[in-house]
Amino acid sequence: MRIFCICIFLFSNFLFSQAINNEYIPPNIDAIESFLKRINQNQINKISGEFSSKIKKVFKDRDEKIREAIEDSTYVFNSKIKEDLDQILQHIYKSNPEINTTDFNFFIKNSIIPNAACYGDGMFEINLGLLTKLESNDELAFIICHEIAHKLLNHSIKGITKRIRSINSEETKEKVKQIKRNKYGQTRAALSLIDELSIDILDYSKEVEAEADSLGFVLFSKTKYSKPLALKALEKLRRVDEMVLYHDVKIDSVFNFKSYPFKDYWLKETTSLFDTSEKINDFSLVSDTLKTHPEIEFRVNKLISDFNIVKDVNDLKAAEYHYKNLREISNMKSIQFAFDLKFLDLVLYQLIEKYDNKEITADYYYSKIAEVLYLVYKAKKSHELGKYVPQKNSFSDEKQLNIIRLFIHNLELNEIAKMWSAFYKSIEGKNIESDNLNKIIEFFKPINK
Questions:
Q1: Distance CA 405, CA 409 (A)
Q2: CA–CA gap between residue 304 and residue 232 (Å, rounded)
Q3: For residues 135 and 319, what is the distance between their CA atoms, to the nearest angstrom?
Q4: How far apart are alpha carbons 259 and 238 in whole angstroms?
């Protein structure tokens, strides 16, 4: 199973390397790593008192993992995204001159999960998945202000300190003794306790999140952005578990061509010896370990009550136009990252979802579908398909990905070639401009003779 919340991967071979800019490893990586080490050390220097050595170790370990993540292509360093993001950041900073933003740095993470994070030392993350789901600079600005509020309120240090104290408390020691005395159920009890005491810099209670909402809104209200759209941003986070991998991909329509109709057996399952009522969803944000924005309704209502915010449906229409370019490039970067890793099931899902929702152009969609067929054919022929596309998993709740996985693995090599031919006939008159498409056409020519 693949957990995309963290998205730490190494890769080296791209399909058409000359057409792809490597934006995953920044040219100034040494300077970035030095910066991260410095701000992390500044954070550590502020820690004192009981259990300080253990708290410092948490932050030191986190710094090492972040720097490893940068080297492992977890982040995207795209100049256009940076330019658009910097405009919003600079306006927030100028509107709140009392904040020392010298050591603030926002990184864009290659993750489809709509989320953002503050690590407490000046490093912030915004996931590509969040940029693809928001509809305005205003919404993004509020989320940025919310994360800055976490930093100003020292929530990371406070949260870790509280958890470390809990781990080392007499109450916890007594729980451990009780587990050891139990004749049965030691493993279950121990795992429950470990989960209860696990340390996560980004794990905040609803009260802490509401506190960041409140200060974040104060910062946000000093900007030019529309106040009611702060609520829109939060409401999107409430529906976050509906945003990831829940789009009906309709594979039997996408790959149904006049000259080569869809075959029902491409979606036929083999009977499994195993079944389970307990499903797993690697992308779900409803679990306690991944849901970093709990109880959104509570937070929305508190903002409305504390600041007398009046919703205005016209605000979004006025704001969304200026955000269009950032959303468009974020969608393409999210697809490209999955392409570069050759996670073809995730590529195909995103292509269909974003095309159906009019997030990508027809030219881009058709040229990338062609690329998927090419890569599936190549992987199938070299017996490497399993490296990039897992088999359908009966234990997984990723329904849409499972449909795509089943479809891809049920295709025979000659069927992929025929499907390509039928697909090409369907787009032949569309005048699609793509160097990659021309190369794929040449690749399949001798195969379909």
A1: 6
A2: 12
A3: 8
A4: 44
Same domain for 81 and 202? Answer: yes
Cα(354)–Cα(360) distance, integer angstroms? 6
Burial class (CB in 10 A: 0-12, 13-18, 19+), 321: exposed
Residues 7 and 111: beta-carbon distance below 8 Å: yes
Q: Which helix (H) or strand (E) holds 124?
A: strand 123-127
36 burial (CB, 10 Å; 0-12 / 13-18 / 19+) is: buried
Indicate whether 270 and 164 sit together in one domain: no
**pLDDT tens, position by position, 143-202:** 999 999 999 999 888 888 777 776 665 665 565 556 455 554 444 444 443 444 444 445
Q: How many Cβ atoms are within 10 Å of 136's Cβ, its own excluded?
A: 25
Angle between helices 206-221 and 79-95 (to 10 degrees): 80
Between CA 354 and CA 329 the distance in angstroms is 12
Amino acid at 231: L
**What range does the domain containing 261 cover?**
251-277+342-444
**Is residue 349 included in any domain, yes or no?**
yes
270 secondary structure, DSSP code: P
Give per-residue pLDDT as tens, 383-442.
Answer: 999 999 999 887 666 889 999 999 999 999 999 999 999 999 999 888 887 888 889 999
Q: Phi, psi (5° rounding) for residue 116?
A: -145, 165
**Phi and psi at residue 257, to the nearest 5°:** -120, 150
Query: Alpha-carbon torsion 430, 432, 436, 442, what sign?
Result: positive
Kindly state whether residues 31 and 127 are assigned to the same domain: yes
